[in-house]
């Protein structure tokens, strides 16, 4: 059974490979996506290390001169996605590379992915030359984030677009959309041609997404103007946890590569980031890390699966981690009678929870993988086993879909997952769960 699962996963990655990078999903996402690439590289490292290297090298072809790494790199033309390169118009920025990209980013996974690759293949003679080649670019992205995305010098960087969170349409953003008066654009959406509209963000949400991009274009993607004016400016727990995990990995790798000045700068950034993350983002009543809306100067006290990614990054001390893990095990995400498979992407006890719609409730395999590693790091053995077992159960029953209904009641009736089929990171991370001991 497990063997056939890994063979299927391998076939999906092979089919989604496009001479240098892997599309997240044929048709629906026909280019290279930033954080997808990181998770996908973890799958490739088990199958073909050269492809894992290429995935990262292709991502870096989209890096801007100021260190910024965009969320989409448009390596190839395609008419199956909106908003494509003509809408995102990266050429408006003086820093953009020749290759068209988006002008917003995604969670900074690169550093810790390089750490995973090194841990897996350090004996391979190709590993150190590869790390030497890409290390400075990974560092430069962190330098960009701390220089341009942290206006108060807190060590917590902001995101200025919901797509930068990765959790694109989480209900967390609803109260931000309420502060915006976006025009009613006529949108040429393509996602709903591939996927049922009831499983995707609403048209009104897309109007906000596009409005933010239009604003940033009118500022020529200038960071100072975005910081001053963007109606969406949020310190996101997942984005900052990824940054902290990536800082830590770049510190370890930098020592190995002899990049000691960079190591010392990364140590300073990381100490400040961890301190502020613990002080500012932890909600002692909810027992999880929450979001801070910098634009409107308010905490957004709600739990999503992102609230627990701090465990992956080793951010809480043991006492706090224990408190979080205990609350998680007894709380709404598993359900008092354990009525949910792990892990819903949004608090199932909230009125905004929607178990079918994209990031408003369904299970996502990358978040499951991050939580699995987080629970494991703090020796929460039952949850570690449960989330791994639930993930593999979903893959075996439904195949490598993009997202899944977390309700056990519904699982008895359903025969399909939701969103894109043959989704690359679902395949890649299943391989890692099966093969990485
Ligand atoms: C989409 O188009 O839904 C993507 O997730 C944006 O990055």
Residue share in helices? Answer: 40-55%
Number of strands: 9
For the record, the CATH class is Mainly Alpha
The major pleated sheet works out as: 3 strands, antiparallel
- H/E element sequence: HEHHEHHHHHHHHEHHEEEEHEHHEHH
The small-molecule ligands in this entry are: (2R)-2,3-dihydroxypropanoic acid
Uncertain runs are: none
For this structure, the CATH topology is Glycosyltransferase
The CA-CA distance between the termini, in Å, is: 18 Å
Strand content: under 5%
What would you report as the Rg, rounded to the nearest angstrom?
20 Å
Explain this structure to me?
The protein is mainly α and 437 residues long. It has a single domain, classed as Glycosyltransferase, CATH 1.50.10.10. It contains 18 helices and nine strands. The mean pLDDT is 97. Bound molecules: (2R)-2,3-dihydroxypropanoic acid. The site of (2R)-2,3-dihydroxypropanoic acid has 3 residues, from loops. The site of (2R)-2,3-dihydroxypropanoic acid (DGY) has 3 residues, from loops.
Question: How would you briefly describe this protein structure?
Answer:
By secondary structure, this protein is mostly helical. 50% of the residues lie in helices and 5% in strands. It is built from 18 helices and nine strands.
């Amino acid at each position: 059974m497990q063997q056939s699962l890994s063979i299927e996963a391998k076939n999906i990655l092979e089919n989604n490979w496009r001479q240098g990078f892997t599309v997240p999903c044929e048709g629906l996402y026909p280019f290279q996506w930033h954080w997808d690439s990181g998770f996908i590289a973890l799958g490739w490292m088990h199958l073909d290390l050269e492809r894992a290297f290429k995935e990262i090298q292709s991502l870096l072809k989209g890096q801007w001169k100021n260190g910024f790494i965009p969320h989409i790199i448009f390596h190839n033309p395609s008419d199956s996605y909106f908003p494509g390169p003509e809408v995102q118009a990266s050429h408006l920025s003086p820093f953009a590379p020749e290759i068209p990209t988006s002008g917003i980013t995604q969670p900074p996974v690169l550093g810790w992915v390089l750490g995973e690759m090194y841990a897996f293949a350090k004996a391979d003679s190709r590993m150190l030359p590869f790390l030497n080649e890409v290390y400075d670019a990974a560092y430069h992205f962190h330098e960009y984030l701390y220089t341009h995305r942290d206006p108060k010098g807190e060590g917590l960087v902001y995101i200025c677009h919901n797509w930068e969170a990765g959790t694109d349409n989480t209900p967390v953003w609803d109260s931000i959309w309420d502060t915006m008066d976006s025009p009613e654009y006529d949108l040429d959406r393509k996602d709903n041609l591939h996927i049922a509209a009831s499983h995707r963000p609403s048209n009104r949400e897309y109007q906000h997404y596009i409005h933010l991009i239009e604003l940033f274009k009118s500022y020529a993607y200038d960071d100072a103007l975005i910081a001053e004016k963007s109606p969406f400016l949020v310190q996101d727990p997942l984005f900052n946890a990824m940054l902290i995990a990536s800082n830590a990995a770049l510190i370890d790798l930098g020592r190995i590569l002899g990049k000691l000045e960079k190591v010392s700068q990364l140590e300073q950034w990381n100490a400040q980031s961890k301190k502020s993350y613990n002080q500012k983002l932890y909600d002692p009543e909810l027992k999880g890390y929450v979001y801070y809306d910098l634009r409107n100067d308010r905490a957004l006290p709600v739990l999503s699966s992102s609230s627990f990614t701090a465990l992956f990054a080793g951010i809480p001390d043991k006492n706090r981690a224990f408190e979080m893990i205990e609350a998680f095990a007894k709380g709404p995400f598993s359900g008092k009678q354990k009525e949910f498979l792990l892990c819903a992407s949004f608090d199932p006890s909230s009125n905004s929870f929607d178990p079918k719609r994209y990031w408003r409730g369904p299970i996502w395999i990358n978040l499951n993988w991050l939580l699995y590693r987080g629970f494991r790091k703090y020796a929460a053995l039952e949850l570690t086993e449960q989330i791994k077992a639930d993930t593999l159960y979903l893959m075996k029953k439904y195949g490598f879909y993009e997202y899944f209904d977390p309700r056990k009641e519904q699982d008895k009736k359903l025969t399909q997952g939701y969103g894109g089929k043959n989704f690359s990171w679902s395949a890649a991370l299943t391989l890692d769960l099966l093969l990485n001991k």
